[in-house]
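Hi support team,

I submitted a single chain yesterday and got back a structure, but I'm not sure I'm reading the token output correctly. Could someone confirm the output below corresponds to the sequence I sent? I've pasted both exactly as they appear in my results page.

Thanks,
R.
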Amino acid sequence: SLSSSRSPRPPVLPATPSNSIYIATSSIDGNVCVASLVDPKDVMLRNFGRPVQAVALSPEYKHDRTYLSGGLAGNLILTVGGRAGTSTTSTTIGGAAAAASGWLGSLGLGANTGKDTILHSGEGSISTIKWSLSGKYVTWVNEEGIKIMRTNLHLDSSDSELAWKRISHIDRPNRPGWEEMASVWKARAEWVDESSLESDSDSISHHGDSTPSEVSTVGEKVEKLVVGWGGTIWVINVYPDRSTGGRKTGSAEVATMSVV
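Hi R., thanks for writing in. Yes, this is the structure output for that exact sequence:
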């Protein structure tokens, strides 16, 4: 029969909070696409004019419509807002306002095309961007090294000026091959849930050289980041309760570094 010859439709997921999942992809043609796995109409496409190698959605993307992206242009770009069903051009291209098109734009409903802000630039291509598990921090890797920044999430109103402030820079190794290969080797970064590791959750173990400031006190909150890049592995501890330059944005220190 005609009905039996049709391809079966995929099951529709219920629109529950646990299914409010979004995915983001980037491409060498400069596009970033963000789509809902539940609502087929909840899709946004944005062009940044240069190859985009990394994109990371805010843990609160469903509510704040925020993501970070970066690539060969060397700009870490914060994008906020936008309407589902539109295809837009980044406001970072030539300084022009983003133009909306698509099924909402054709109806004159595409006025909210989003805003782009360059948070950091000038240190070569960006290969990796990762939000921390708490959402308080984000790390990105460019040709010069590993960066960690405080985000705008979970900040008191009195500390709002601390949003998007960088707290750490860790240089790439200064060894033969790195100067030529820093833009080719793609870093892998993962924020680790230490409670899932088989270790004492009240302390941090350190190997190799360490200083007293690297040892956490009992009960101190620590976010752990592992970065693998060009045959080198870093384990980095981020201490949210510590201050950087007199500001309580948190502090990051390298716990271990090894060469494979």
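A quick pointer for reading it: The chain has a mean pLDDT of 82. Let us know if anything else looks off.

Best,
Support desk
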